[in-house]
Structures are given as C-alpha cells and as structure tokens.
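Internal ticket #5521
Category: modeling
Description: The requester needs a full-assembly model to guide mutagenesis choices. All entity lines are attached below as received. Residue total reported by intake: 378.
Assigned to: D.W.
Attached entities:
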Amino acid sequence: MAPKNYRRVVAKFGTNLLTAGSDRLDLRTIATLVGQVARLRRDGVEVVVVTSGAIAAGRHILDRPVESSAIVRRQVYASVGQGMLMRSYSDLFAWHDVIVAQALLTRRDLSDRSAYLNARSTLASLLGLGIVPVVNENDVVAVDEIAEAVIGDNDSLSALVANLIEADLLAILTDSGGLFASDPRTDPATRVIETVTRIEEAAALVQSRRVSRSGTGGMATKIEAARLATASGTDVVIAGGHENEVLLRASRGESVGTFFPSSVSRIEGRKRFLLSGLSARGEIVVDDGASGALLSQGKSLLPAGVREVKGPFQRGDTVIIANGAGRRIGYGITNYDEKDVRAILGRRSTEIESVLGYDYGAEVVHRNNLVLLEGGGV
Ligand code: GLU
C-alpha cells in the first residue's frame, strides 16, 4: 500500500490485548501502547483511544461474588473496573505529559442526532487542546453492549467513533494479529491477508471462526467494524497490538496486519452515514443568495440566508432545505431547533448569542452536514 501519513487516528485496544491473556490489566502492555500514542501526539497526529478492559479489571478487583444475572454482573464489573482502567491510562500518559479525558458513550447516544453533535464537538475540542480522549462504551447503561451477543461491542463503537471524528485511520489492535487466510489454530502455517478490498469475502472467511476469550468481539465484529468505517471514509488496519511499534507503523501507512482501504471520501461517507435512513423532519426555506452560496460555492447555511421555517424539528434533526420557489435543494443536519431558527433567521451569526442567550456555532447547517441534491433538486 502506498505510504500515507495519517493525521487523525482512532486506536482500539481489546480486552485480550490489554490483559495480555491474564486475568488483570497488563500495565506493561498498556504502557507500550500509551508510549506510541504519546509519540504520535508529539508528531502532531490526533489520536482517540477506544479501550476495553473495564470488565476484566472489575472482575479482578472485586473479591466477593456478585449474585445477579450475567448482564448485571458484567455491568457491576465494568463500573468497578472503569475507574481503575482510566487511572492506568492517566498515570501512564502523565509520564509523557499528556492529559487524558474520559468519554463514555453508548451507541444509542450516537444514534441520537443531538447527542451525536454534542459528542462530536466535545471530542473535537479535546483533540484541539492536545488531549487524548479515552473512550469506552458506557457499559452500565448499554445492556446490548455487554450481553453475550456477538453484535454490539467496542469494535463497532470504535467504527462509530472513527465516523464521529472523521478519522482517517482506525487501528483495531488485538492479541491475535490481523486476518489470517485460514484458522491459525488448525493451520499454524497460515499467513495474514495483507489487504482486503472486498469486505464480503473477509466476512465469509471468518464466519465460522470465533477466537475471542474475554472480549465480546472476535474477528467477525472487527470485520463489521471495518465495513462500517471504510464505508464512511476511514481506512482500517487490524493488527497485533504486541507487535513492535505497531501503532506508529500503521499510522505511517506501513504494512502491518490486515489493511482495509476505504472506498469513499471521508466527507461523502460521513454525510451518507448521517443521512442514512433518516427522514427529514422539517424544512428551512432559504433566499436566493443563500441558495447560490450553498449550491455553487460550497458554503454553510447561515441564519442570514434563512427566510422561513417549517417545523417541528429539534437540534440535530435532518431538515429539507428549499429555495424560495419551493424546490428542494438539499438536506442537512440542523444545529438549532425550529424555535431557535425562527428567532435568528435573517440575522447575522454574530447576533445569535445575544438573541438566544447561547450559541451552537455560526451555521444553521454546517456544510459538512449538508447534502445537496444534484442539479439543484426537484
Ligand atoms: N466495554 C467492555 C469493557 O470495557 C468491553 C467490550 C468489548 O470487549 O468489546 O470491558
């Protein structure tokens, strides 16, 4: 693969990697991974860590039986272990003078448009401050995540986070390396597949193999994560986390583990994700100036260009954008709810805060959250 220098990376560390096969967090392994992330930060690469290991840590810390259902037991473990997990990261990153921030997310949060936008701006601000966000699923509330189901795990969370921050690389680091051509348990001579361009083939290959022990994932969920991330414009690497400098090498675009090149541009992929399966709630009618600026100059929609609002819609909803003649010219995710847009329409962006008393940004719809209909729509 052609050498690339990735600038925004999501690094996902699985339970079996972080425990190095033991029944507790393996600080030596975590220190090695943390050292690589710190090095990337120094080189100007923005990194978000998605980490598992809370349940394993909690199970190890608790010295008494937990008499409840398997799901509640795992939630108790996660809740006990998350603090220890986080402390390990903050102590180890402190050696490198790197500040970390905890972000606990659920997939439900990320499917709620307004929570999605809030999580996105928080993570973007943290990265802008040189902080490394350390993300885990909020296991205490996310039942489906830690039930024994194969779907729902930190692998898919990492793909959602990659989409959320528009990462250019998602590195899923495991204890077992990349995707092997045949099952390494039965075929010791097997080789890692270097590049996968057709996810379907990879998915078929792993269908009958499940190798995970304490993590919820396994290769099948990693392939699903790769499918999601590559479809939203992020390249994916699945590689062995114990390999020497694996994260640094992957971020320089060197060949490690299995590489899944993304098939679409980041912006297009993200837009498609944002708008997929969503029905528009309301409509914003824009004036001719704004219509021209959106369609031919790639601009965002500002309150000054809005003429009329048809609700109801909330911040984060998808709205139709129409021109004065009633033609749909696109769809976008609105930063303000119906009432707010009505209050600020026709105004300058600098007036938003004084009119509303708060401010979610200068744009009613940012151009990154806007899909224009070809040829100006119908
Ligand atoms: N969020 C879980 C934990 O921290 C792990 C989920 C997974 O293994 O994918 O323990």
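Resolution: model delivered.
Comment from assignee: Residues 70-94 form the longest helix (25 residues).
Ticket closed.
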